[in-house]
Amino acid sequence: MDATSSDALRLEGLGKRYGAFAALEGVSLAIPRGQLFGLIGHNGAGKSTLFKLLLNLIVPTSGRIWLAGVEVRGTASRDTRRSVGYLPENLVLYDNLSGLETLRFFARLKGAPLAQCGELLERVGLAAAGAKPVREYSKGMRQRLGFAQALLGEPKLLLLDEPTTGLDPAATREFFAQLEALRGQGVTIVISSHVLAELQNRVDALAMLAGGKLAAQGTVQELRERSGRPLRVVVTAQPQRLDALRDALAGQEGAELERTAAGELTIRVPRSAKLALLRTLAQHELDDLHLHEPSLEDLYFDLRGGEA
After folding, report:
1. Residue (of 194, 228, 190) closest to 206 by Cα position
2. Domain boundary among 201, 218, 235
3. Residues 151 and 280 in one domain
4. Phi, psi torsion values for 24, nearest 5 degrees
5. What Rg do the C-alpha atoms of the chain give, in angstroms?
6. Do the Cβ atoms of 189 and 37 come closer than 8 Å?
7. Backbone dihedral region of 191: left (phi > 0), alpha (psi from -120 to 50 degrees) or beta?
8. What is the pTM of this model?
9. Distance between CA atoms of 200 and 183, rounded to whole angstroms?
10. Rounded Cα gap, residues 163 and 193, in angstroms
11. What confidence tens digit (pLDDT) does each residue in 92-131 have?
12. For residue range 181-234, what is the model confidence (pLDDT) as tens digits?
């Protein structure tokens, strides 16, 4: 695998061992610039280890890392790493500092302009609380402040570890709207989350870690096709019309039929039979129809390779 500047992030055979324990093993993937990329996996799957390796907080046992075509190794990649923003899962802040003082502190560490601090507080909805000490902040406010510090220096790559923890639904929606805007500006975003429903319709692609190894990667649709899970279609109609539909589907290969409620029929078919099923349904008079694709949570349990 060759590193190219068109990739925001590229890993080749990346591994990290602690004695006999492999926290990460043989992970290779490439994330193009401007993608919103999901990273999922159970606790202990290797997600936090991967972030630490990307930030050069720990040194890999094997493999290589490139950020924007520059290998993360020694001082040559120092400037590139300054273009990375990071929000850790467990954010530690100084409670006696105000929100604005906190951002200024991180800005000095990162070499970012202090003028950005007030703008970022406004951006994350904390302008009115900027003078308050952080000890008075709620969990959601602390999380938004952490997101603001990750944006210092206008990073080209954002690493976000469980970023919606503590956010209410309105704040979560606003957070993802900001990610969409950043992606539109060419920022690459890697987001790790256990809330799979939040990622399902938002990420361009994702990688699944299990036991320190890469269990699967691709778009959600590609993972659906790989999993082999059937499509589930629920139709409602008058009982006699459902009987006629059942007769019509009785000979369709792979179709599983179940009357789940009065006036309701659940049909499960392989993905390859999707169009044939829809053609059959179009020939019958139905009251309603709902097509259910496998969720990202379903795919996670199918593809993680049996890891708990």
Report:
1. 190
2. 218
3. no
4. -150, 140
5. 24
6. yes
7. beta
8. 0.88
9. 17
10. 7
11. 899 999 999 999 999 999 999 999 999 999 999 999 999 9
12. 999 999 999 999 988 999 999 999 999 999 999 999 999 999 988 888 899 999
Residues 77 and 163 in one domain: yes
Residues 51 and 192 in one domain: yes
SS3 53: helix
Query: Is residue 308, in this structure, part of any structural domain at all?
Result: no
Domain assignment present for residue 130? The answer is yes
Residue ending a domain, among 114, 135, 155, is: 155
Q: What are phi and psi of 89, to 5 degrees?
A: -65, -45
CA angle 64, 92, 125 (to 5 degrees): 100
When divided into structural domains, the chain yields a total of: 3
Task: Convert 179-231 into a string of H (helix), E (strand) and C (coil).
Answer: HHHHHHCCCEEEEECCCHHHHHCCCCEEEEEECCEEEEEECHHHHHHHHCCCE
The answer on 298 and 272 residing in a single domain is: yes
Token pair for 265: 């029929």
Ramachandran angles phi, psi of 127, nearest 5° = -60, -40
Same domain, 245 and 121: no
Residue 61 and residue 35 in one domain: yes
Residue 193's contacts (CB-CB under 8 Å, 6 or more residues apart) are 38, 40, 162, 163, 164, 199
CA distance 296 to 108: 40
| Domain limits for position 67 | 1-83+159-218
Q: What is the pLDDT of residue 69?
A: 84
Whole-number pLDDT of residue 75: 62
DSSP string, 120-174: HHHHTT-GGGTTSBGGG--HHHHHHHHHHHHTTT--SEEEEESTTTT--HHHHHH
Q: Which residues are paired to 15 by β-bridges?
A: 62
The two three-digit tokens of residue 218, written as one number: 């691709």
Same structural domain for residues 142 and 171?
no
User: Which CATH number do you get for residue 271?
Assistant: 3.30.70.920
Q: Report the candidate in 48, 133, 58, 151 with the shortest Cα–Cα distance to residue 93.
A: 133
Residue listed under structure tokens 């008058």 = 238
Which uninterrupted H or E stretch holds 125? none
The one-letter amino acid code at 196 reads: L
